[in-house]
Specification:
about 475 residues, alpha/beta, Aminopeptidase, Aminopeptidase i, Domain 2, 2 domains, six-stranded antiparallel sheet, about 30% helix, globular, binds manganese (II) ion
């Protein structure tokens, strides 16, 4: 009887898949150090512009050169910043580029509140900047929290003025007010979508009238504009050519007594973007030409010159290919290429189990997520990675002892989502999503696990090092 049971146990061990806890598998000091470095990058880089600039600085400090119009030299590492909001970086491999490229593609834009082109108004003694939300948000999460303002204003003389306000201890912050519970009785039985109106995401930016003159119409608005004129030399119409973003003012923090988790704004998708850049830098001799692509605009459909559909990616690859001796066809190279689409997945939240299908849900601390397909309504819009490619990527992960799990975004037909994966598949590039789990995704403070983050870095590095 006992012999039989041990046979069952033996067989189970041999045949059943067991998710592994990353902490047990990995070097814990490396996990903490990596997380601390990531936190600094996250706190400084709350917009795509700032994040791209930070990555540029890191690449420059690791011997990468900016690729402009010069002909690239063999053996050198290059990068290109795209419209200040995206960044592409390249490291030559052991093999010629003509054999294809190993890509990791991520995005560095995150949900936020963008200032409208005609934003400033005054009502009932308060001045507001009106916003238009960017990406998928739950409206109420952005109310009553400290907001910081980042962005640029381009004047007609070509001067670009930067605004950064709300991050430093001594800075003012900005806020959207909410109704007190005492007067919210009528709201409590209404659907959330009716109570919270995205048109009302107006951010408080002032309350004092110019020259303390309360009789003058729009005196508070005038105070704000006068301040902006003094500080930045702008007038109201300069908002027409501005890109200003309200983002959460708080910084990333450890979560829990054990400090296993990290809350922060913009984990989606900087928790994939930073490991991608780090993996590219730390892979000394990649097997194939290695390219990390950090895009913008994923949260609104990957369109435009900085989104993953942009042909500026092809321009960069063509420029890189100029270091090859013989003629090489761009589309041929792409068809021989492979891509890990780096984006986050939904972590199983015990309070919302009904949204997940447990056996195909990702869990925190269980390593990177390999996602064959995303999409909605029967895989609609999904890249749906091929079996052969999945097998090959698994083989790399297993060689590098990467803790990984395979998951879907949620229950069938409960919603859905997408990543940049499809745009790489469309280019003839074998592609699969590889990211990590996030709780409270798209909220002002998303949660990830530190060990998953480090494991993702190891996974990306393994891919660059070994994938043939
Ligand atoms: Mn994402
Ligand atoms: Mn997202």
């Amino acid at each position: 009887m006992s012999k039989e049971k041990s046979l069952i146990e033996e067989k189970k061990e041999q045949l059943f898949f067991q998710k592994k806890l990353v902490w047990k598998e990995s070097n814990n000091d490396s996990i903490q150090t990596f997380a601390e470095n990531y936190k600094k990058v996250l706190d400084l880089g709350k917009t795509e512009r700032i994040f791209a600039q930070q990555m540029k600085d890191i690449l420059l400090s690791h011997g990468f050169e900016e690729l402009n119009s010069q002909v690239p030299q063999k053996g050198k590492k290059y990068f290109r910043v795209v419209n200040e909001k995206g960044i592409f970086a390249f490291v030559p491999g052991k093999q010629s580029i003509s054999n294809g490229i190993n890509f990791i593609a991520t995005h560095i834009d995150s949900p936020r509140l963008d200032v409208k082109p005609n934003p400033l108004f005054e009502d009932s003694g308060i001045a507001f900047l009106d916003t238009h939300y960017y990406g998928g948000i739950k409206t109420y999460q952005w109310m009553n929290i400290a907001l910081a303002l980042h962005g640029v204003i381009t004047k007609t003389n070509g001067e670009v003025v930067e605004i950064h306000m709300g991050e430093k201890e001594e800075d003012p912050i900005f806020m959207i007010s909410d109704l007190l519970p005492h007067l919210s009785k009528n709201y409590k039985t209404k659907p959330v979508g009716e109570v919270f109106n995205n048109e009302n995401l107006d951010v408080i930016v002032g309350s004092v009238p110019y020259q303390f003159n309360t009789d003058e119409k729009d005196a508070i608005k005038l105070f704000v504009l006068d301040y902006l004129h003094e500080a930045y030399g702008i007038t109201e119409q300069d908002f027409f050519s501005a890109e200003l973003e309200f983002v959460p003012a708080c910084n990333a923090r450890d979560v829990g007594f054990d400090r296993g988790l990290m809350a922060g704004y913009g984990h989606d998708d900087r928790c994939c973007s930073y490991p991608a850049i780090k993996a590219l830098i730390d892979t000394k001799t990649p097997e194939k030409a290695a390219v990390a692509l950090l895009f913008d605009k994923e949260e609104i459909g990957s369109v435009g010159t900085t989104g993953a559909m942009t042909h500026l990616m092809e321009v960069f690859i063509e420029d890189i290919m100029k270091q090859e001796d013989g003629p090489v066809s761009l589309h041929k190279v792409l068809s021989l290429s492979s891509c890990l689409s780096g984006d986050v997945g939904a972590g199983l939240d015990p309070h919302y189990k009904e949204a997940f299908e447990a056996k195909n849900a990702a869990e925190l601390h269980k390593g990177v997520i390999l996602t064959k397909y995303t999409g909605s309504g029967g895989k609609g819009g999904a890249n749906d990675a091929h079996s052969e490619f999945l097998g090959a990527v698994r083989s790399v992960f297993e060689n590098h002892k990467i803790a990984y799990q395979v998951a879907e975004l949620g229950k069938v037909d409960i919603g859905g989502g997408g990543t940049v994966a499809g745009y790489f598949g469309n280019r003839g590039i074998q592609t699969v999503d590889v990211g990590i789990s996030v709780l409270s995704m798209h909220s002002p403070q998303e949660i990830i696990a530190k060990d998953d983050l480090y494991e993702l870095y190891r996974a990306y590095k393994g891919f660059f090092e070994e994938y043939k």
